[in-house]
Automatic annotation (TrEMBL):
Source taxon at top rank: Bacteria
Stretches assigned to the Ppx/GppA phosphatase N-terminal domain: 18-289
Species of the source: Corynebacterium testudinoris
EC id: 3.6.1.40
Protein name: Ppx/GppA phosphatase family
InterPro entries associated with the record: ATPase_NBD, GppA/Ppx_hydrolase, Ppx_GppA_N
UniProt keyword terms in alphabetical order: Hydrolase
Keyword Hydrolase among UniProt keywords: yes
Classification lineage: Bacteria, Bacillati, Actinomycetota, Actinomycetes, Mycobacteriales
Enzyme kind, highest EC tier: hydrolase
Molecular function GO terms recorded: guanosine-5'-triphosphate,3'-diphosphate diphosphatase activity
Length: 317
């Protein structure tokens, strides 16, 4: 048996998954998340804010402490949209190397392409879904970008695309009022629609039978739609959100202020200010799905890129 860890650092959050690998079996030990907003301001400045790097360092050091306590033998960390866009990203990578080296000498965060990010998310997200629900379109809605990947249950990838739209990017670039003005919302919807027009050209969306939503915007919307009193991954995983009902919830999220959203216990305080932006992205995806397919809902998955990374580590053992 070997204990491994996966870390995913995106624009908004940093997440950890520790699993035991025994033969072909993978057993989850720990899964946790912190909002660090590494990508704060990157869209405007082109650089990672030193304060954001420090927030991420503090969180990653806690994760490494957990890995040492759990006797992790191998770790892989990936960094996505925020670091791809930053001119000073080497400062970030040196920091990750100094910490991850405590687990595996030479380890440091890797910048992965949007396509690889999508493939890892796909492998994780469909793991628990029946094969007859495919082909699947897995949608990983992050802070700076949103990955789309269409594939089959046996792992054949039919198309991938990383769209430069996410909950943080949309909020910082367009939705500056709180709550946003009608004009800002209209501009944001147009921005999303333009990027989704590229998705349809690049990815075979029309072949999709089941849309699978992963990451914080989707999982939080599921918790809200179910009326949960606290965030419960077991209730959220494999839940189904119908498009028509989801539109009503999306409208509420867009119209609310960040302070009002933060009052709901299922909304992480670090996500409250960007959930409106993420909801506008989901709304655009609904429009795209209805135009291109006969689907009428999302399946929500708590499994994602972290599970894909762990599966890759297991394959190397």
């Amino acid at each position: 048996m070997t204990r491994v860890a996966a870390v995913d650092c995106g624009t908004n959050s940093i997440r950890l998954l520790i699993c035991d690998i025994h033969g072909g079996d993978i057993t989850e030990i720990t899964r946790t998340m912190e909002i660090v907003r590494l990508g704060q301001g990157v869209d405007a400045t082109g650089e990672l804010d030193p304060a954001a790097i420090e927030r991420t360092r503090v969180a990653l050091e806690r994760y490494v402490d957990i890995m040492e306590f759990e006797q992790v033998k191998a770790v892989r960390m990936v960094a996505t949209s925020a670091t791809r866009d930053a001119s000073n990203r080497e400062d970030f990578f040196r920091m990750t190397g100094s910490l991850l080296g405590r687990i595996t000498p030479g380890a440091r965060a890797e910048v992965i392409s949007g396509d690889e990010e999508a493939r890892l998310s796909f492998n994780g997200a469909i793991a628990d879904l029946p094969a007859d629900q495919g082909p699947f379109c897995v949608i990983d809605l992050g802070g700076g970008s949103t990955e789309f990947i269409v594939g089959t249950a046996d792992g054949e990838i039919l198309g991938t695309h990383s769209a430069q739209m996410g909950c943080v990017r949309l909020t910082e670039r367009i939705l500056r009022a709180d709550p946003p003005t009608e004009t800002e919302v209209e501009i944001a919807r147009d921005y999303v629609a333009e990027r989704l027009s590229d998705v349809v050209k690049i990815v075979p969306i029309a072949q999709t039978k089941t849309f699978v939503g992963v990451a914080g915007t989707f999982t939080t919307l599921s918790a809200l739609a179910q009326g949960l009193e606290k965030y419960d991954p077991a209730e959220i995983h494999s839940s189904v959100l119908r498009f028509d009902a989801l539109r009503v919830l999306i409208q509420q999220m867009v119209e609310q202020s960040a302070d009002t959203r933060a009052l709901n216990p299922v909304i992480h305080p670090g996500r409250a200010d960007v959930l409106g932006g993420g909801s506008i992205v989901v709304e655009g995806i609904i429009d795209m799905a209805l135009a291109e397919t006969s689907a009428d809902s999302f399946v929500i998955s708590e499994k994602d890129i972290l599970d894909g990374i762990v599966a890759g580590l297991a394959a190397q053992l």
